Amino acid sequence: MERIEDSQAESQLISSSSKNTPYVFKGKLKAKAKKMPLKIKEEMCFIIKDDDELLLFMASPSKPSHDVFAMWTDSLSMVYTLKLLFSYIWSNSRHFS
Fold first, then answer.
1. Is 92 left (phi over 0), alpha (psi -120 to 50) or beta?
2. pLDDT digits (tens, 9 = 90+) for 41-70
3. Which of 14, 29, 82, 90 could form a disulfide with 5 if both were Cys (CB 3.0 to 4.6 A apart)?
4. Domain spans of the chain, in order of start
């Protein structure tokens, strides 16, 4: 988290953390992080870099939850779709208090 906090890059983070863990998002990171609305499932995890690369993390329902794999793509339509999703969730999320 320190790398995100100290980075000069524009970054935004949405977390499904419980109200018992807001201490994770302190200092400068607090302004870059929001709590995901309860109505949205927690299984989503992805990173968008520079509006042209995407890393999508996925897990199989038939495997243990820690058994995650990732898919990288530079497909502009995929990046754009998940950027729209992120923007929607961001606008419906609240900063940690």
1. alpha
2. 777 888 898 899 999 998 877 777 778 889
3. 29
4. 2-95
